[in-house]
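Moderator note: this is an archived Q&A kept for reference. The question asked for a predicted structure of one protein chain; the sequence and the answer are reproduced below.
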Amino acid sequence: MASVTKRIEEIKQPYGGYIPLSKFKKIQLNDGKTLFDSENIHASVSGMAVDYMTRLVMGADADDAFYISLKGAKRASLLGQENSAKIADKLLSGIKGIDDKSIISACKLSTFDVWARNPAAAPMAKTADEINPDKNTILNIQTMVERSVDFWKEYGPITADGFTFEYDGYTPTVNSGDGDFLTYDTMWDFKVSKSKPTSKNTLQLLMYWIMGQHSGKEEFRGIKNIGIFNARLNMVYILQISEVSSEIIKEVERDVICYEN
């Protein structure tokens, strides 16, 4: 049994990947801003902060936007990390917008995600106390949140976020995984990497789309495109599912997700 991301690590893709990035349409957005090259926290933490802060700025309640972080903090408390839930609640109360204090609190709160997503690795991860974003990092996150909000003004509205694939979308081989966002016809993944998407990223989206179709959930019925928005690069990548061959889809169903015939 494995998550989507872990399963991708286990398999060997064809040369260039099941879906080469070259198949995606690329759209460069431009806000006239340049990010600082250096940041002092891990990209995964800044990425979560950008994701959750974007949801908050767009109107989500703070406890909904940081749901996974709060869930992780509660699990950490149960697993012997004393006061984690109280620390998380205090950090949440300090998040009001995209001011410096809110960004710092969001980064610290996001460190609890690992307790929800990968508890085995959580004891080795950096704690909230060890995460202290500097000015460059804070400014970068603020800009990426603003870019994400602008992106949704053009490509939204969001119809679902944090979606999952219960029950028939999962298999004994791939039994967990959750996506970022849906609009009325597109499944979106958000990134803040300095690099362009990889074949692992494009396969992840294809797996999500296939799992959505197998799940039988109504929210996936009209999804005709898969896309990636990288807020750091301010770049959109989008592909119509109709451009993916049925042979590739069947191969991923059979050999990667492993649905029973």
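Archived answer notes: The mean pLDDT is 95.
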